[in-house]
Amino acid sequence: MNFQIREAIKANVHGQSADELKGILVDAIDRGEEHLLPGLGVFLEAWWTNADQQKQQNFMQDLAKAMA
To answer: Which domain of life does the UniProt lineage start with (predicted)?
Structure first.
């Protein structure tokens, strides 16, 4: 993924509330448009880098179940 895309997405959502971010996330998933996937990836990357190991492990377990 191009680094400029990451920075543009971060700039577009900077300062948004949890509810606003949830709205963006839900909208992107509901639309199902592939061009929105990089944005979801940036959200995941930001969460992952700020999560402790336990949260990461819990997420990976939940993800494995969801992908089964």
So the answer is: Bacteria
